[in-house]
What we know:
Helix content is 54%, strand content 10%. It has helices at residues 3-19, 22-32, 42-48, 64-74, 122-127, 153-159, 168-174, 177-189, 195-203, 213-224, 229-239, 242-245, 265-278, 288-296, 301-304, 318-332, 337-349, 363-373, 377-387, 393-417, 428-435, 441-457, 462-475, and strands at 37-40, 55-60, 77-79, 87-92, 95-101, 103-106, 115-118, 137-139, 146-148, 161-162, 192-193, 306-307, 313-314.
Amino acid sequence: MSNALDAAGELAIRSLIERAPLASSLAQAFKAAGFKLALVGGPVRDAILGRLGNDLDFTTDAKPLETKKILQSWAEDVWDIGIDFGTIAGKRGDTTVEITTYRSDKYDLDSRKPEVEFGENIEGDLSRRDFTINAMALELTGAKPEFIDVFNGLADLSAKVLRTPVAPEQSFSDDPLRMMRAARFAAQLDFEVSEDALKAMTEMAERINIISAERVRDEFTKLLMSNNPRKGIAILVATGIAELVLPEIPKLQLEIDEHHHHKDVYEHSLTVLDQAIALEDRLGGKNLVIRLASLLHDIGKPKTRALIPGGGVSFHHHEVVGARLAKERLKKLRYSNEVIDDVETLIALHLRFHGYGDGEWTDSAVRRYVRDAGELLTHLHVLTRADCTTRNQRKAERLAKTYDELEARIERLAAEEELAAIRPDLDGAEVMALLKLKPSREVGLALDFLLELRLEHGPLGKERATTELLNWWQSR
């Protein structure tokens, strides 16, 4: 090995010993059974970068059933859900391991699932990895640990370049999801994608259509939850992949002419995403719902765009259209119903604040704002603040000050009225007793009436609520 490889190997070995001491005992178990075991892929990359975690990937010449037998004697818990793909997983202490037989994954032209073939040696296995920085290995069952880097992954790691071990056309044909993975790693690691890989991604973009919606969703979610999702999204848009997996995003690149000016909606959306990420501490850290809502909040604009005579552009009701489009897209990507409902609600409400004007909302309007946002109130605060993008510093300061005032009013009312759980002043049993009703539609209408009074006037108290209810019932 060269001096650089020696140093990288030593760093990876030292990091592995310090952060994952159980790997050594696992290697001994495989060696005792007559098999080889190597740490491989992302963990080797991360060990070199000095940030090895507790999830470790290994590759071996043992077949899956042999791996399972060895792992059952070593781990506290073993599961074989990936056995059809040659993978057995286990956990011991805080360390989770996945061990995969040397293999090659290859897709037929119309297949959504790879055909798994087991390989004979680690070099062949590494040649079929996605990128050179993930095609390095640390062989642990020899006389001493050996660092293996047949595709110059270390050099690419140093240069911060994503390159495929074999021709990108072959790599992306074998597993088209690797094209999205390139964008994801670029976002996660702040790397550049090699020119030949970008060219292949652009030419082969339609190949992504054979990948299941669930795998596309998972890869996009990893990209979106990275530290710099803007970079990965830009790659998906530039290569045409976004047009196939999330077409609403490239459609935000609306044509701008000299007479009908408006914000660059695509760039604005990425800026809102950046600004929402900067405010995520209010939500307890990285948050998928706020990132999806920020990215998609204006996707209704292309369908609602209208030219105003004399110049300018309008997007009336784009929040309503956008909420519907987001719901449809997220369903196609198989996101959970909870995520879909939350993103839809936030997009539908994201313009509500702009009706607040100069802070002249009534208490009733504030109550309705809180009621409609529900448990997503803090998310809505974050999205609304992130959406206030303007180069006009005075306008930006005024918007921020106005929203500060709205949040302060919400806090005051919350302290006085328990805004987090706005309910009618009378419950269903009390309504039925007063109106001599059995459970029915009329009871629901009566409770709706009382809730509207509560939103409009604040807490009424049972006496006034009773009077108002009886008067309403008599008037019907």
